Amino acid sequence: MATQSVFERPVLEVAKPTQLAVRPIAAPKKIHPVFWAFLLIYLGTWAGHYTSADAAQKIQWARQIIAGGPYWVDLTTGNAPKYGIGHSLISIPPLIAARLVNRFTGIHAEAPFYTLLFVLNSALLVYLVARYLRDRGYSTSNIWMTACAVGLATSWWPYSKLDASECVVATLFMTALVLLLENHPILAFTCASFMVLLRSDAAILLLLLVGWELWRNKFRVRWLTVAVGIGPTALFYCFVNYMRFGTILDHGYHGEPFSNPLLFGVYGILFSAGKSVFLFSPALLLGFLGWRRFRERLPQDAFLFAAVFTAQLLLYARWWDWSGDDSWGVRFMLPSVVLMTIPCVELLSRRRLLTAAALTAGLLVQLPALLLPPLEYVVFLHSAPFTRQSVYVDDEHTRSRLDFEDMRYNPRYSELSAGYALLELRLGIAPPPTSAEEQGRTGTPVVDILRSLPEPQGCRWDLIWCHLHSRPDQHIAARRQP
Q: Looking at the 3D structure of the chain, how many domains does it have?
């Protein structure tokens, strides 16, 4: 009997491409250093003060829950609490911890304890991205580079300073995704269902995740698992809505319709000069460019990420306030920006020059929001009577009110332009004021408009460490108490 030569044996018996695609030898076993590294980075730019009026109402509801009521009426407005109860529930532990610290030390630490929650949340999401990539078999170098792309070169970093519900929604979605991959479906859907307690519109993300899990399991019936994971949260959601509004169908957004023209909203979110998601998250472009290779390796995951991005884009493009202000960029799209940046993992080692350029641009874009309050310009647009010289008119004294449309569509008055103008003013390197005649020809530079803003008291930078150093007698530097 003739013996079979080793060179004649089928290659598939030695190593199957599908097996190598799932878990190569280079995949790391431990990725917890990712969490600690990004926690240190985010702590470095931590602000430690309240940031938004929306969050103030959510915190007020948390305070009322801690105090034992009233539960269904906001004491500051006299109306039912407007926002999802999920944000108020996650705010309770840091508020209780702050009260204990105050009782035993006399230090008022409510704002730092509360905002620290979002710093931890931001580091946790980057860790979950790394864990997802590890479970999908990527190498250590690609995992760290993708973590840097998501965590440093997108708007995710500035949102470690902001108390937006979308940040927690993104982390819960990523948590559920990792748990499903690691075969913990009930716990995964429990985490995913909590997204709806934060934002009612997150139900779309929950449905996409359920569909992805069914597709991944070849549409085998797993409704019992889904029901056990989602059911308790769904019942609680209905109960809270009924107690607030007398019906489970009311979500609290009276008079805020989906009235924006779809194409205008899509253009604004994707391509506008002042709010484009690619402008505020340059690494997102790498994710789109790497999506095709990512789809070849992980088709189900690739279509899930694309579906989340498309669903959020079409939904929020119709919202009357499509840009989601007050926000740094478009906060509504934050979960899908994170997900669609992940496919850049397939591009990082192939397009090194493009990768370096996108990551550098991402860091530079986030710089004003890291050193200064990310919402400072937006907040002053609400209240201060900023005006700009009208261009190409006969009367050089004709001025127009600077409003949100200027910020959204005119690059001269965008958040990025204003952010760098504020940096110049803080550093004392701003150019001299432009003459009225020159402004009539080219428009009023945003730096001239911002000269009327008052100088910050204490530290000029929006960092808790700077405030503590400049005012050691005050343990809290909370700029905007709710």
A: 2
Domain co-membership, 353 together with 401 = no
Q: Is the pTM of this model over 0.85?
A: yes
**Is 299 found in the same domain as 187?**
yes
Angle CA 460–464–468, to nearest 5: 85
The helix (run of H) or strand (run of E) holding residue 400 is strand 399-401
**Helix locations, 246-351, DSSP H:** 262-271, 277-280, 283-297, 299-317, 334-341
In eight-state DSSP terms, residue 326 is S
Q: Which domain holds residue 430?
A: 385-452
Per-residue pLDDT tens digits of the chain, which is 482 residues long: 444 443 333 433 333 334 334 444 444 568 899 999 999 999 999 999 998 888 899 999 999 999 998 999 999 889 999 999 999 999 999 999 999 999 999 999 999 999 999 999 999 999 999 999 999 999 999 999 999 999 999 999 999 999 999 999 999 999 999 999 999 999 999 999 999 999 999 999 999 999 999 898 887 767 788 899 999 999 999 999 999 999 888 777 877 889 999 999 999 999 999 999 999 999 999 999 999 999 999 999 999 999 999 999 999 999 999 999 889 999 999 999 999 999 999 998 788 888 999 999 999 999 999 999 999 999 989 888 888 888 877 666 678 889 899 999 999 999 999 999 999 999 999 999 988 888 878 889 999 999 988 887 778 899 999 877 654 434 333 343 33
Tokens of 71: 């539960």
In a domain, 11, yes or no: no
- Collapsing DSSP to helix, strand or coil, 252 comes out as coil
Of 254, 253, 275, 255, residue with least CA distance to 264: 275
Alpha helices in 374-450 (DSSP H): 376-383, 404-409, 415-427, 436-442, 446-450
Residue 289, C-beta contacts closer than 8 angstroms, at least 6 positions apart: 344, 347, 351, 354
Residue 112 lies in a domain: no
Mark whether 141 and 201 lie in a shared domain.
Answer: yes
170 falls within a domain: yes
């397939």: which residue's tokens?
A: 346
Element (H, E) at 368: helix 352-371
H or E element in which residue 387 lies: strand 387-389
**Residues paired with 389 in a beta bridge:** 399
Residues 160 and 277 in one domain: yes
